[in-house]
Structures are given as structure tokens and as C-alpha cells.
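Record 1 of the preview.
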Amino acid sequence: MMAYGTGGIALAGASLQVPSIDEFLPPEILFQGTPFAINRIILVRIVATVIMLLVLGITAHRAKVVPGRWQGAVEWLLEFVRDNIVYQVMGELRGRRYVPMITTMFMTILVFNLCGIIPGMNIAATATITVPLLLALWTFVQYWAATFRGKGFLTYLREEMFPAGVPWPIYFILAPMQLLDIVVIRPFSLTIRLFANMISGHILVALCFAATQFFLIDVENKALMGFGVVTFVGGFVMTLFEAFVAAIQAFIFATLSTVYINLSYPED
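->
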């Protein structure tokens, strides 16, 4: 007998607990009631950051002229960001200034995203809006700083809001749309793209494995065990897909940040 309630799906006395958005708002576990309160997601961010800094620091400290496999893999990743994102978009001369920033963004997003499939963490550190928004605002600040250095603030606004060759009545519609794009849409799109992808991925993986436990362990009807096998395979496939999405989202965020900053410079 099957029924639906607030806890999910009930079947033969067992209940499938469906993952919900509440998982991304966990209770405080350390320093409750203080400005330094830490919940599970914040703790995952702290642990991931410490591990990332330790790994990169030890790798740099032990670097050799002829790199081993690990050093070679780390160097390949750093060179990939430099050559295939920053230099590809900006060119080497202009891009040198932004290599540290974009590399930091890429590595942070990649590691934070991968936390969602690491046992013991089981949630992406980018799955709440705070980190994506903070990184998007960093891009926004650098974007406007480049504008001041390159074209000048007023010149840039004039070129973006009133592009040449457009009939002047169109400017009444185009100008506010362009201003909205520069000030709101670009940083907002960076934030939501990363945030939404990591939330949806976590929920899908959690749902697959929750269903696996439900059908293989909780439900007494052995005829339903086949569904548990299907959901287990689905969860494994989704975990691999989440690893792929984690890397793709880091690449997309870093690339778009580079493109937006580059757009603030005058044409060569």
C-alpha cells in the first residue's frame, strides 16, 4: 500500500525521505548564537579550503625541475587556466594581471563543487548562494576597476548604453537594458548559474541513493528490490556526472569572469 505525506512516500510501513531544500539550511553546530556560528556547509568550506591550501603549498614546496606525476598534474591544471582561459580570452600581455585571480576562482570553485561527491562531506560548498555571489562580486569589482583604467567610467557607459549606428529612438529602450545588463544581469547570472547547478545536482544524487536505501533495505517486499538496483546504478552515474559538472561549472565561471573583465577594456 502506498501513500504520500510530509515525510515523502510511505510503502508497506517504510517511508522514503525525499531530499529537500532544507538540507541547504542546516542548523548551527559550532559557536551557536554568535557572529562566528558555523553550520555544516560552512565547516565543509573551511575544511576544503585548508586541504586545498595544504596540498598546493606542499606541492609547491617539493617542486622539482623534472616534475613527478602529481606535480605534473597540478602544473597542467594551473597552466590550463592560464593558457586556455585567461590568455585565450585576453592575450598574454593583458592577461598576466588576472592569472592569479582567475586561477584562484577556478580552483576554489572546482574543489568546493567536488565536495558534493566526497564521502563525509556530501554537499557542494557552492550549493548556497553565499560563495557564488561573493565570487561574482569579485568579478564585478575587477570589471569596474578595468573600466576605470581602460576607457574611463563615463566613456564606457556611453559606449555600452548608446552604441554607434543605432537609431536614436531605440536608445530609450536599449540604454536601460544595457545598464541593467552591466550592473545586475552579469553578476546575477554568474551567481545563479553556479548556485542552481550545484543544488540540483546534489538533490538528484541524494534522491537516487535515498531511493536505493528505501527499496533495498527499508521495504520488506523483496519484489521491489529491482528498483533499488536501478536507483543505485542511477546514483553512481549521477555521481560521475556531478564530477563532470563540477569541472565544467568551474571552467564556465572562470571563462565568463575573464570575458566580462576583458569587455571593459578598449578595443585594440
